[in-house]
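Q: Structure tokens for this one, please.
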Amino acid sequence: MTEDPLPDGARQDRLVQMGEPPRTLREALVKSLWIVIWLVFLSSPVQDLVSGEHTTGATVAGGIGLAAFVAVYLTLVFRNMGRATADIRTVALMVLALVALAVVLCLTLGPPWLGLFVYVSVACGTAFPLRVSYWTIPLTAVVMLLVGLHAGEKDARDLILLVVLIGFAMTGVRQLVRTTVELRRARATVAQLAANEERLRLARDLHDLLGHSLSLITLKSELAGRMLPDHPEKAAQQVADIEQVSRQALVDVREAVTGYRRPRLAGELAGAQVALTAAGVIADLPAEPDLHGVSTESESALAWTLREAVTNVVRHSAARRCTVELVRRQTLDGPVLELSVEDDGSGGSGGGTPGNGLTGLTERLEKATGSLEAGRTRHGFRLVARVPLTDERAPVGPADDTVGSGA
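A: Here is the predicted structure, written as tokens:
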């Protein structure tokens, strides 16, 4: 089987959208063709008109009545197929017009015209609300039987099952069309929500990446400026560090944009040591972390948390000392790995008001089924992040298992 060379979007544009108004002349013609096919039941009235059994006046009047009937019917179907009825009174008047035309034409021109009641039933199933369609379709069949007592009872009995079945079948078709329209709208909504979530992720990543890197570049630039007159060699080293940080920031931004970046906790600990030392803050950081039982997503969330917390210490706290700890704890919800970052500064995180960084961290940790706590203490500011552990060897009971800390 040969594969369709057209892309998905082109194939979709090539199809007529179900339940939607035609967008082009071609779509209008295709929709019209599908509706005109069902005009096959008009063959009997048309044959009756051209048979020559009626007078010229009756033939002309019958042709005008048939044209009016078809016009009203097509208007109803085109306007209301798959849509909620906006004006029930207008629809009711148009259906009554169809009934009146069908009754008059059947009584005056004979049994061949009883097929018009099939279209009346279709109009009831298409245009009326379901609760109305369920009783107007059988009512149409009853009216046809009553008319058939005078125009042709046998023909009416032969058509009664067809009138009822086609009418109820159209209610099912209408529901299918409406469901298709709703699914298409829901799919568009889901796509929009996914795009919004991706934009939020990108904004969050860029904030965390650039906030940390630019803070470090600013600090080292200030150091280089102070060292330049008396210590040009040390100033040159700071400039080299600035170049390295900026290059790494560029790599991180590119990886964040492509969606592949997952920071590692060990790397962020090393980066935190550099940033805190450059800011003149005494850093008390843990050794190589034990991440057994920590999922990749949880580790990534803790790494982002550490980066944002250290960035806040450097930029806002005016702290002299910062302590970072990794502790395994047993809680009522199960074992967790707890990351705490505490400083002795006075700045905290925006005076206690959650900023974009803390808000983004909360969202990251929630996705990893973790939690975040942040607030001032007696001696400074403390941020605590917790993520669940899958390690069955986690300690049972209230005892803490500190991963380690050291200067």
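A few notes: Residues 1-16, 349-354, 392-407 have pLDDT under 50 and may be disordered. The two ends are 69 Å apart (CA to CA).
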